[in-house]
# Entry
Amino acid sequence: MIPEPCFERPLICDGLPSESIAIVIGENPATELGVDWWSFWSEGKGFDLAEFLKYYEAERLQQGNTPVSNTRRRLNRIRENGIACVETNAYRNEKPDGAGSGVSNFAVLKVLIENMESLRAIIAHGNVAQEFLAAVEVPLNVKTFATRHFRQESYAVVDNICKKILAI
# Structure
């Protein structure tokens, strides 16, 4: 399902996806990294978020950007609120101005939703992500949240969603 090598970004998490309680869906990864996704993955341990973030921040600086995007700030905030989450997107191709024709990430999202036993919530930020989520069958016990794209959303909205997820 995820090709090897994979120079796209199908998902990001801290460890194994099965250890997460939420999925956050966006449109597509905006920062082009040009690195094999598998270089951050190891069997048994899963995704190395700390190494990924080091690489991500260094690459953004090299591209003349701030080390952390507005969207990444909100994603980090979710983890700071105690939510273990899988970050994914409707499209997994890295492109700064939207997915364009895009590389669909539907199969990955479907597998995550069907196999994450501890899944409590799905956050879809932005119209593209919300349309994508509408095409998937979500288990009745999983709460969904829809927001504006995270680059435009306030910390207060993100914090409020986190409180609701922790209360589930």
